[in-house]
Amino acid sequence: SVLNVVDDKTEVREYFNTEGFNRWNKIYSESDEVNSVQLDIRTGHDQTIQKILNWVKDDGDISGKSVCDCGCGVGSLAIPLAQMGADVSASDISDAMSSEAARRAESLGISNANFYTSDLESVEGKYDTVSCVDVAIHYPTEQMAGMIGHLCELSDRRVIFSFAPKTWWFVALKKIGELFPGPSKTTRAYLHEEEVVKKALEDSGFKIAREEFTGTNFYFSKLFEAVKA
Ligand code: SAM
Questions:
Q1: What is the ipTM of this complex?
Q2: How close is the Cα of 46 to the center of ligand 1, in Å?
Q3: Which of 34, 35, 89, 163 lies in the 20 to 30 Å Cα band around 44?
Q4: What InterPro entries does this protein's entry cite (predicted)?
Q5: Does residue 20 have its Cβ closer than 6 Å to ligand 1?
Q6: Would you list the domain boundaries of the chain?
């Protein structure tokens, strides 16, 4: 329901401004203050980022092209893309996350990336490449198609999108996880069917050009590159 969606967003924003920020800022760094599960997630996430950067490198020069990274976190993708010369505009619903991304970029002397706080649905403009990595886990199934439609509207050419795939095995794992939630507060997690994501991209006029899957013990992410059909 609409109320549920509002709840989800408020919860996600609060989480990533507080406990979630502390947790993910450590995971998305080189800090050794992580446990073995967090280290595993860091490794998996690094692999997803590297696969995207390899695609971009294989295509040639991204310098001067515009990139819009939605749900940028601490800038794990936006920062290396800026270092490759892309003109980056990156946002996150969490002010703590987008501020940390800006801080990291500044400390690296990056001037061709702009970070700001925004809900994905409020992002505007037109960009060569629109990316949205590991954000869909916070979107209920019924909100997915609309979210992907918005990302596609922002894109002139390409959308890079990743999500935790809904297979019977991950559904089972997630159930087990819910039985043993552990001490730390988290948010609800939504898995998505590959076919549903593909259809949403196709309905918005895009077709899958490349795909990858990355799985470690605790990290699972399906990655699509979709280009304007
Ligand atoms: N994309 C980054 C990366 O791969 O390093 C961060 C991934 S992190 C698991 C998910 C991020 O999505 C968080 O920083 C969270 O604040 C952000 N997020 C969740 N819902 C969002 C929304 N509706 N609009 C913008 N950002 C959102």
A1: 0.99
A2: 15
A3: 89
A4: Mg_prot_MeTrfase, Mg_prot_MeTrfase_C, SAM-dependent_MTases_sf
A5: no
A6: 2-228
- The model carries a pTM of 0.94
Token look-up 């749900």 returns: 71
**What average pLDDT does this structure show over 195-210?**
98
- Dist. CA 146 → ligand 1 center (Å): 17
User: What token pair was written down for 110?
Assistant: 């990056």
- Candidates 2, 226, 3, 16; CA nearest to 119 is 16
- Condensed to tens digits (0 to 9), the pLDDT of residues 108-122 reads 999 999 999 999 999
Q: In CATH, what is the architecture of 2-228?
A: 3-Layer(aba) Sandwich (3.40)
Ligand 1 close to Cβ of residue 21 (< 6 A): no
The finding on whether 27 has its CB within 6 A of some atom of ligand 1 is no
Query: Mind listing the pLDDT tens digit for each residue in 66-75?
Result: 999 999 999 9
52 contacts 131 by C-beta, under 8 angstroms: yes
